[in-house]
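An example makes the point: we let one protein speak, the chain in one-letter code, the fold tokenised, and here it is:
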Amino acid sequence: MEQDDVTIREQNFHSQVREYTICFLLFAVLYIVSYFIITRYRRKSDDHEDEDAVVNRISLYLCTFTLAVSGGAVLLLPFSIISRLWNLVSLFSNLCLFVLMPFAYFFLESEGFAGSKKHDTT
């Protein structure tokens, strides 16, 4: 009886580890593909100041994360009935839509666009 409980707990543990490993690998692949897609279609700009480079890099990473989550939502849609992953993807999709994308937009806009002159309005 006790041996059966141990094997059931071990099977549950290995099942969870397997699921998390697959989710991580899937998201890593989606993130890399999203990064290459965004850098391919991103507008090339001139040399930036260090402050502008940091802002652009943060916005790039947030947009890449959002595109990866969106790709995961689209790819997991057919499997949503048989998988428990849909709840996690839905949570991150809502987070990206309502928090990360507006933050990236306003963060980039607050620093100004590349090549624009910064004015002090004092």
Summary: Helices lie at 2-41, 50-76, 85-111.
